[in-house]
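Protein in question quoted in full.
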Amino acid sequence: MSLLSLSDAGSSGSVSAAVGAPSEDRIRNLFTLVKDGQGKVIQKNNRKARVCNACHLQDNYSLDKAVKHLENCEQAQAENEKLTQLLDEVHVDRDGGSTCQGTLDGRVVSATVTDSEQSTIDMAILLMFIMCNISFNVADSPWYKRIFRYLHPGFTPATAKVLRTKYLTGAFASARQSIKKLVAAVTMPHCITLVLDGWSDINME
């Protein structure tokens, strides 16, 4: 199936609909054909007019134009949690199935991220949030997620909830063990002072 133009059919829908369908069909489901008063589809330069189901912007969308629109449509990104994954699939299909590669600790990483690699990257992100005093809510921003999609299509960053629960709990336990070892190695424990700081919100936000 060509990735250069949208299919003739047009209907409203969501990214999660027809999970096994080609990425082009799922992109098409996010736009609705525009018809005139007689029920005929409006066309310009042999392209059918469509309207974005999220922001209602009308244009004669080719697939390339539709993808670029969705990458910048805040409403579409807010309404569809799987939109980033779908756009990644379109980019991979367009490249003929090629994979994106990067490096992690000196190792080549393909577009498929293993559980171990996911945890390593998420922990690095957690430390950045903590050390730079950044709110975990930033992790749920579509603009933040877009950065990782450009850097590595196969990686989906942890959500704010996962960062401040699963990973923060693990980082706390690890830091606690390290502190215990340091304290145990000190010959004059009465000279040690620990100063702690954290979030005042009960949700640690």
Notes: The beta strands are 31-33, 43-44, 47-48, 50-52, 58-59, 102-104, 107-109. The chain has seven helices and seven strands.
